[in-house]
Amino acid sequence: MKANHSKTTFKSLLEILFVSTRLGLTSFGGPIAHLGYFHEEYIRRRKWMDEKSYADLVALAQFLPGPASSQVGIGIGVMRGGVLGGIVSFIGFTLPSVIALILFALLLQNFDVADAGWIHGLKIVAVAVVAHAIMGMAKNLTPDLSRKAIALFVLVVTLFWQSAFSQVGVILIAALIGYFLYKNNAETDENHVQFPIAKRFSAICLGLFFGLLFLLPLLREVTGSYWVAMFDSFYRAGSLVFGGGHVVLPLLEQEFVPTGWLTEEAFLAGYGATQAVPGPLFTFAAYLGAVMNGWQGGLFATVAIFLPAFLLILGALPFWDMLRNNRKIKGAVMGVNAAVLGILISAFYTPIWTSSILEPADFALAAVLFSMLVYWKLPPWIIVVCGAIGGSLLTLL
């Protein structure tokens, strides 16, 4: 019996690794696009979670600092295969871009790929994927006029006031509105997701997160160690950033360029390389670490910048499931879910649409890719390949 359980667990972990690695190899377009890819693969195709649970997990990731898409991927992995499933899911989704960026740092720093046609095609793929995700999520997150109004309010505010603080602010406002609107008639069907994590383990993760955040700067001063200083810089950047990878870039530049750890030119070259690879933008740390200390530095920096996100999502999941089914809080969660849709639509316009659809030919390619995904129901990896080919062909027109 125990052998059969171990065999089933191993098979489940292999499945998580296979699916997450495929997503790590094909998910271009930034964190909002990644949520679209996750929704398509995990929710629509494999049904590993229901729509409401996925929406709640996305809402939790929006509340927490760090890379939202990576935290959602970890959460799905935890639900499917426990803590090991979360680790495997993270490795599969992150490792391809980490390897690619370390290679960029070691071998390809002199090649300019940021303006290649196939990269522009991949940006257009993100337009199709996110549009599809928004259509699917809108039906579940905003079924009534009140929640549609919340989403519209969030959309307008985040378009006019684009910052990480605006996202956190409108989520809190939406939670307050949802609490008062739905505190008496919040949906009565409880939706439990059993995350196989003990609350004691989660409390340890949260304690470790805050402990490292406050202790690392002290250790840096006391020891004077280069590696402790490096770990502290990446850990702090990963701990204090709301809004995804684009927001972490100025923090990293401030940490490493003025100190002379790497040049402005090397930093910008790495940023261009990061746009060329799939997966989370936080893997930019792998490039920076590799420039400073070879491949070992790349892996070290990757662990340091992602560790806060890992500790936070593992620490919050069991308590989040308990809170979101509390009648006093459920109305607030309904408001937050509507706000998440507004944020998704705002991010769909900028930066995804504004950086991808530059002329009528781009819109035509986006329409073709969207139709292939939505109406012909082709796998996302085919859409990615066709987008890259289409982008290259557009440069010849």
Automatic annotation (TrEMBL):
It is found in: Cell membrane. The chain crosses the membrane at residues 16-38, 83-106, 118-138, 150-181, 201-222, 234-252, 298-320, 332-354, 374-396. Pfam families: Chromate_transp. The keyword Cell membrane applies. InterPro entries: Chr_Tranpt_l_chain, Chromate_transpt. It is a multi-pass membrane protein. The keyword 4Fe-4S does not apply. Keywords: Cell membrane, Membrane, Transmembrane, Transmembrane helix. Belongs to the chromate ion transporter (CHR) (TC 2.A.51) family. This is Chromate efflux transporter.
